[in-house]
Amino acid sequence: MEIPFRSLPEDTLTAVIEDYITREGTEYGERDYSLEEKVEQVKKQLEQGKILITFDPETETCTLTPAR
């Protein structure tokens, strides 16, 4: 089920994004980004419609997925 990111309170949105970012694991880029920089990058991708927040009721977890 898709969750419109604008319907989430700012602190909840940030927590969902931080949870996703920190479970990703190893960095493969040329530059390391701070958690705050990564959160801002993800927020921009949400605003641009490049990614979506989805909720799985079976596992009761949120994740970020590419937009179709």
Description:
This protein is of the alpha+beta class and 68 residues long. The protein has a single domain (2-24, 33-66), classed as YehU-like (Arc Repressor Mutant, subunit A, Orthogonal Bundle). The protein has 2 helices and 3 strands; from the N terminus they run βααββ. It has helices spanning 10-23, 35-47, and strands at 2-3, 51-56, 61-66. The chain has a 3-stranded antiparallel β-sheet with strand order 1-2-3, with helices on one face. A hairpin with a 4-residue loop joins strand 2 and strand 3. Helix 1 (10-23) crosses helix 2 (35-47). The chain is globular.
Order of helices and strands: EHHEE
| The CATH homology group name | YehU-like
Q: Any idea what the shape is?
A: globular
What is the average of the pLDDT values?
Answer: 90
Distance between the termini: 14 Å
The tally of helices reads 2
Sequence stretches where pLDDT stays below 50 over 5 or more residues = none
The fraction of residues in strands falls at 15-25%
Give the C-alpha Rg.
Answer: 12 Å
The CATH class name reads: Mainly Alpha
Overall number of strands: 3
How many distinct domains? 1
> What characterizes the major β-sheet?
3 strands, antiparallel
CATH-derived architecture: Orthogonal Bundle
